[in-house]
Every structure is written in structure tokens, then in C-alpha cells.
Design goal:
Tscrpt_reg_LuxR_C; CheY-like_superfamily; 201 residues; alpha/beta; Response regulator
Length: 201
């Protein structure tokens, strides 16, 4: 049996995924979790083979949780299952140690196939998203530029961002200018929105 832990903050989605997976004779859903902060403890308690994680959850997001699981329970492989069909999220998920990436509007058979493949030691990425990621390339932003844009998206001033990230205001302005240029945006708000839409933040 393939032991699966499900983590999604939407109870209806979580329940529907569990119901679909329980129809498979070789899959056992051993835990259903609603927040990212609960996943690691639940995984240590239930020893799943696969953790099926949403990206956006309260507490810790699925990408951070995937990295946590890789460090703490290397025998548990993770699959990101999300509504976000964005190349940047795919890249960040793989960097965090996820072995699979499935978009929620995929057919149920694709999710089941992904679970079986990942359990067998393979990787699985939604084919349409993989093609888009190859065509689009990696994020043009440096890690610090992404940090600054993320802070800018919360609406603070340059001084606020500098305080939050412990940088000088001049450094913040330089990173913002560079990020605006790389995203071909007109303003920092537009740059943050474009970066978020591409999954780079």
C-alpha cells in the first residue's frame, strides 16, 4: 500500500481528494491536514510514503513544508498539488525537494499516476506546465530582489522595506530598480504583481 498524507487548507478539496484516492486499491490516506504547521508532526506520527501538499496553506506554505519533510523524513516524497499553474512555482517546488507537481484541474487519473510514479522513485510534472516552464526559463530575479519585491508587495515604503530586510535604503532602491527592469514593469507594484503571477515570489 502507498501511504499518503494530504495537506490542503480547503476542507472540501481535501475531502474530495481523499475520497478519490481511497477508491484506489493500492493507496491508503493516512492523514488529512488543514495547515502547513501541522504537516511535519503528522508525517512523523503516520510515516507516509507520499505527502500531497497544497502551495498556499496557513502557517507554512507547501514549498517550505516540502523542504522540511526532505530534511526530517527523507523517505517521504512530496508532490505539490495546487491551483497555481505557474513555471516559477514549479521551479521553487523542485528546488525545495518536491518530486512531483500536479495542477488541481488535472484528471484524477493523472494524480493517481503521479503518486504511483513518485512512490516508484520517479518524478512527475504536469506535462503542460513542464512545457511552459521550459519555454519560459528560470526566474530572472536574484534571491534578494525577490525578497525586496515580496516586501514591496505588502505596500511599505522604501524605509519600511529597508528596516524589515535590514538593508540600507539605497540598497533597497537598487534592488527595486533592477527587479522593475527585469520584469519590464513600470512600477514596483506592477513588478511585484508580475513576479507573483509568474510564481517567482
Amino acid at each position: 500500500m502507498i501511504r499518503v498524507l494530504l495537506a490542503d487548507d480547503q476542507a472540501l478539496v481535501r475531502g474530495a481528494l481523499a475520497a478519490v484516492l481511497r477508491l484506489e486499491p493500492d493507496i491508503d490516506v493516512v492523514a488529512e491536514i488543514g495547515t502547513g504547521t501541522e504537516v511535519l508532526a503528522a508525517a512523523q506520527r503516520t510515516a507516509p510514503d507520499i505527502a500531497l501538499l497544497d502551495v498556499q496553506m496557513p502557517g507554512r506554505d507547501g514549498l517550505a513544508v516540502a523542504a522540511d519533510l526532505q530534511r526530517a523524513l527523507p523517505g517521504c516524497r512530496t508532490i505539490i498539488c495546487t491551483t497555481f499553474s505557474r513555471p516559477g512555482y514549479l521551479s521553487r517546488a523542485m528546488s525545495a525537494g518536491a518530486a512531483g507537481y500536479v495542477v488541481k484541474d488535472s484528471p484524477p487519473e493523472q494524480l493517481v499516476d503521479a503518486i504511483r510514479r513518485v512512490r516508484a522513485g520517479l518524478r512527475f510534472v504536469d506535462p503542460a506546465l513542464a512545457a511552459e516552464a521550459l519555454a519560459g526559463g528560470a526566474s530572472p530575479l536574484t534571491g534578494r530582489e525577490a525578497d525586496v519585491l515580496r516586501a514591496a508587495s505588502e505596500g511599505g515604503t522604501v524605509a519600511d522595506i529597508a528596516r524589515t530586510l535590514r538593508l540600507s535604503q539605497g540598497t533597497v532602491r537598487n534592488h527595486l530598480s533592477s527587479a522593475i527592469g527585469k520584469t519590464q514593469a513600470r512600477t514596483r507594484a506592477e513588478a511585484a504583481r508580475l513576479a507573483e503571477n509568474n510564481g517567482w515570489l
